[in-house]
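Regression report. Comparing outputs from two consecutive submissions.

Submission 1:
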Amino acid sequence: MGYNARIASNPYVVGSFACIGGGLFGLDISSMSGVLSNPAYLKTFNTPGPNAQGAMVAAMPAGSLVGALLVSLLADRIGRKKTIILAGLVWVVGSILQCASVNRGMLVVGRIISGLSVGLSSAVVPIYQSEITAPSIRGRIVSLQQWSITWGILIQYFIQFGCSYINGTASFRIPWGLQMIPAIILSAGMVIFPESPRYLFDTGKEEEALQVLADLHGGGDKTNELVVLEYEEIKQQVYYERTEGAKSYLDLLKPGNPRRVMLGCCLQMWSQLSGMNVMMYYIIYVFRGAGLTGTRGNLIADVVPAIIYIDRWGRRPMLIAGTLAMGFWLSLVGGLQGHFGSWGTIDGSSDQIWLVANNDAATKAIIVCSYFFVCSFAISMGPVSWTYPAELYSLKVRGKAVSLATATNWLFNTALAWAVPPGLSNIAWKTYFIFAAFNFAACIHIFFMYPETVGRTLEEVEDIFQQGHLFTAWKIGRNVGKKTVEEVVGKEKDIQKESLDEKDEA
């Protein structure tokens, strides 16, 4: 069946390997933030100003927007596994163009192509992970996507740091070239991993889907309780959806779906409006006068608790606490910079920047608050923003809905990547208050409208939204939707009996 059953039996290996796709995004973040002050980079690309630099950075998320939308077609046509393999190959092409770029146009094209890859992988990897893992660890596995992003940031940061001692264009071309290695490993390695059993069932390969489920959750035993439960739930869901007609984007507008589509899209929007990725892209601007040591290493450490406890704490508590904390820390950063800073220059540059000068205490306080902001994101919005949208939807619309949610992420990423450099150049410290306000707004939205999804199979999530409570999400309990094998099999027999009765009457 084109995969290694022994590897498939370990959900952590299957789920974490696909996360290399998320690592590509992390590699890109550091690949740009690490060269913003590189003399060879500035000389090669004619010292781009705030608008030009914003456009060059925004080229990647712009490509990612297109890539995420393509997943809605590719994931349902060629499968989750092949789409991940394709994403790795596209990244290699983009990396080659970036490494060889001699002007801004060539660099932008390379970044757009790399963005296509990141868009593909960022949308399809959470779908794949959510469909191959058991409910008890699904949040943990999908949240590895965020961890892989931070590993990509860290690895590329150290590569950039090492290459900064090289004179000439090799100081930025080597890091841009090396980032194709993980993509090659991803595409080659995915060959021995299984396809999503839900995709297999949906395309008529029911026996293969059952075998994959058995290898994933039952050590090859097709009679395992969890295997039987998931197989029966998938079967009921697929058969029901087939009676609804062919798949279409119009399915997203059918009763019950618009609410979930908006929840997924809005969560990805809030993830970007939290200000985290902007801080990672332009960290050199934020800490220019205060140093950068350890920022990314700290993010790595703080994602770990979220991965371990996301299936215990639940999605809602993490999101509510995280957005409150992020808004608080950004308010402190903005207040400290506004009170103690002033316009000035640094390192002999003629460009005016907002600078906290000759005040060591205020500088350290800003760095500490920025660290705590990063920590707050790492244990809340970071992992949950990938986990939650991947588990909201029915199989029929999952590919299109997750694609649309991820595209929303990249739409706002593109806009912010382009807008923030001019923002920091013109309104400086006030920028942080804008993002703080976004976080407080996200907290209110999540409290009233986001129900808990922890611990259910993807099919059981359907029952959560049948409860209603559009603006009172906290009233939906954690046990809503959970079923036993006996209940699911009994429902299947009832459906079959009703079908026979209808035939007899006819």
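Submission 2:
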Amino acid sequence: MASTKLILAMDDDPVPATDTGTLVTELKDVNDKAPTIEERMIRVCNEESAPVLLSVTDEDGPGFAAPYRVELLGDSRNIWTTTMDETKTGIRLRLKTALQQGDYSVDLRVYDNHFLYKDRTILASVCDCTGDTVRCPPHSTSTDLAYYCTTQ
């Protein structure tokens, strides 16, 4: 991004001298924003669940964002698996092992291509169902949970 300013200079001499000049300032983008996972809540079936596609965004410009890399943190590594999609801008999150119906925290860390990262905890409502047709009973987390299922 470039900015141009015109500057006029004058002195206060009885015979004033004046001059003009142009100052051009170019601002370069830096890697000051970590990528973030947009979704905060998901729903999945506890049997043969389909992967959930999570979106990753970064406010930095090209060269400081995608391709992204993701890792599971803590106990989430034992319960979930992650892979990046083909564009390296989305995360496929999949339940690794059957869980009882309930709400679980999934701890993730997402990196940009310069290894700047941000941690995100996703609330996963695991429902007693099979496949990608998620059916949760009324007592589970809010009925307006967004879920994003993909097929293999």
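Expected: both submissions complete independently.
Actual: both completed, but the second showed a warning that disappeared on reload.
Relevant detail on submission 2: The chain has a mean pLDDT of 86.
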